[in-house]
Structures are given as C-alpha cells and as structure tokens.
Amino acid sequence: METTNDSSGGDFILVGFSEHPELELILSIFVLILYSITLVGNVAIISLSILDARLHTPMYFFLRNLSVLDLSFTTSIVPQMLVNMWGGNKKISYAGCMVQYWVALALGSTECVLLAVMAVDRYVAVCWPLRYTTMMHPKLCHLLAAASWSSGFANSFLQSSMAIVLPRCGNRRVDHFFCELLIIVKLSCVDTGPTESKMFIARLIILAVPVSIILTSYVCIAREVVKMRSAEGRKKAFGTCASHLIVVSLFYGTIMFLYLQPKDNYSQDQSKALAVFYMILAPTLNPLIYTLRNKDVKKAVRKIMGKETSLVK
Predict the structure, then answer these.
(1) What is the CATH number that goes with domain 11-300?
(2) Looking at residue 147, what is its pLDDT?
(3) Which among 68, 120, 111 has a CA at the least distance from the CA of 241?
C-alpha cells in the first residue's frame, strides 16, 4: 500500500471527552470556572508584585514569572478546548495544532526549570539570610529567569522539530482535548520508536536536572533548619518554603507519573484526567497556595484596595 507524506496541511480532529458526552457539559462548566479563577488569581499576583514596592524582591519576581507561565499555559489550551466541547465541530487547523503543542511544551518545560530556580532562591533565603539581597541581586534574577525561558523553548523546539517531519498518511484523529506532542507522534505511519526514544531522553533531562536541583536545595534547607534552636526560626523557615514545596509536588508528581510511566501502564483516559489536573487545576491552585497564608500579599491587597477606596471618595 502506497503512503504519502502529508505532514503539513489539513485539519486535526480533537476527540477530547466526546466519548463521554454525558460528562462533557459538566466538565466544560468546571473548566470554565477554573479558568476564570486562574485568570483572576494570576493577574492579581502579577499586578500586586508590580504595584507594591514591598513585593519587589527575588521571591515575588520569580512568582510573577510563574504566574505569567500559568496564565499563558492555560490560555494556550482552554479556549480551544471549550470551543470544541460546546460546538459540534471538533476540528483544529494544522497550523493551530502545531502552535498549540509547541507553545504548551515550551511553557511546561520552562516551568520545570523555573521551579528549580525558585528552590535555589528559597535555599539562599533560608541558609544565607544576611546575604540574600546581595546574592540574589536583580541582574542574577533576570539571568536565571531568562535561562528558564530559553531552556524551555529550546527543549520544545528540539522535540517539535522531530515530530513535524514525521508522515501521518491521513491520520488526523487526536485522542485528547489538545494537540499533545506524543499523540501527534503516534499518528505517524512509520516506526516512531527511535524518535520517541530521543524525546524520552529530552523529557528525562528537562525533568531530572531541575528535580536534582530542587532536592539538593531542600536537603541543604533541611540541614539548616535542624540546626536552628529557635522554634520561631524553624516555623519561619518552613513558612518560607511550604508554598513552593506544595506547588512542586503538584506539578512534578503529576507530569512524572504521566510522561515517565511504562507504556504498558498507559491509559488514554488516565492521561486526559491527569492533563486536566496539571494544565488547568494546578495553575488555579498556585495563586491560592502562594497567597492564602502570605502576609505580604495580604498587606499589598489592603494597600491597593485602600488607595482605590480613597480615590473613589
């Protein structure tokens, strides 16, 4: 049978959750609510960290980058997802599909590295408190943020360039709610084993290196906390790191289970459920995790709200 390389052109069909139509409407409402909270929460963090001078610190600089990432990440997925769930047309253009999986992978990879950078920031804050402002100076913070973004987009470019050249021979049915790179690869009508192996190595590197940095940072933090004689000091150190640890656990726990599990254990329904968690639910929770117990952010909110009230009067 003759095959043709139609690696460009034509629409893809996003199956999404259409196999469970009774759940699709409920899920779409759930996703819309979460997306709205994500928009409000992350825009609030970005705005507060810019407007309030007390939040002009390395921690909030990196948190602002994380909020921009989460906002962009969900926006690259959710609007198209809702359009497909609410309408009968499940199609997405070839160009739209390519852009979606490239952007989603780039932003997800960037977050992997940025969370490691934030762990280093927490290490310096706990272990070198008196030298924190001099060690984490603005120029270094900007360089670390730039390294996070550039490494994430480089990883996406590398993996996407492997996928885009594969022939699909008319296969355009994507069994997901967005154009996920690994599924696009599996649509190919040739042996994708070598390509998938290279992609696995790339995913392993973008996960393993940041995880190693995070674990090393927190081992050093734990040692420093153990040495503290003051219960108040230990409590303060824990409060400094708790939010970041929760976010790291949610993010890395989900994607490592999703992308590093053996193929024999792979379930597409399970993949969709986990993708909803780390692509939609986690970005919704991140602003709440960082702000609910954060006195600085609460003070910034009161200050901004106070200014607005006085202007109205």
Answers:
(1) 1.20.1070.10
(2) 96
(3) 120
pLDDT tens-digit readout, 255-268: 777 766 655 555 66
Q: What pTM was computed for the model?
A: 0.86
Q: For 189-218, how does the pLDDT look when each residue is reduced to its tens digit (9 = 90+)?
A: 888 888 888 988 998 899 899 999 999 999
Sorted by sequence, the CB contacts under 8 Å of residue 236 that are 6+ apart come out as: none
pLDDT, tens digit, 9 for 90 and up, residues 73-112: 999 999 888 888 887 778 888 888 889 989 999 999 999 9
Distance of CA 291 to the CA centre of its chain: 18
Q: Which residue has the tokens 């959750």?
A: 17
Other Cβ atoms closer than 10 A to 46:
19
| Angle (CA) 265 22 254, round 5° | 35
Query: Token digits for 264?
Result: 């024999």
CB 241 within 8 A of CB 219: no
Strand partners, 13: 91, 173
